[in-house]
Amino acid sequence: MEITKKYLNDELTVVWKPKLCIHSGKCVKALPEVFKPQEKPWIQLEPSNNADIIDAIKSCPSGALSYYLNDIGETRVDKENIKEMTRVEVLKDGPLMVYGTLEIMKADGKQENRSKSTAFSRCGQTGNSPFCDGSHVN
User: Shortest CA distance to 65 belongs to which of 14, 7, 119, 129?
Assistant: First the structure.
């Protein structure tokens, strides 16, 4: 079962899927007053405004962070993140980033759908194959 954690304020819910996280640190660099990996809980929404939090979430390269507005709900499809063309980017000393909607067939025969961005491991050190989990950084 995939772990999903939610952090919310009156208007916004931030969703974090740790298994997808590649620990790029873009969220921390964008809003260190909200994203604090050394603290519990590591996401603290109160010191910032929702627009800045949403911008930081959109910079997440792995898709581990997402959000929804509480009055609209989690079932909302964020059309701006659906891309018509799939794009692949090879990151120097990092994962293979695939942007777009994907259907992934794993070696064990299980199928998984992903949208927005997906980080595939290139180093073979990941504990979450075929996805990057940031193990190459250690």
Answer: 14
- DSSP codes of every residue in 39-95: SSSSB--TTS-HHHHHHHHHT-SSS-EEEEETTT-TT---GGG--SS-EEEE-TTS-
pLDDT tens sequence across 103-126: 888 888 888 888 778 899 999 889
What b/e sequence results for 25-61 when a residue is b if at least 16 CB atoms lie within 10 Å of its CB, and e otherwise?
ebbbebbeebbeeeeeebbbbeebeeeebeebbbebb
Q: Quote the CA–CA distance of 57 and 18 in Å, as a whole number.
A: 14
Whole-model pTM: value is: 0.62
* Cis, bond preceding 130 (omega within 30 deg of 0): yes
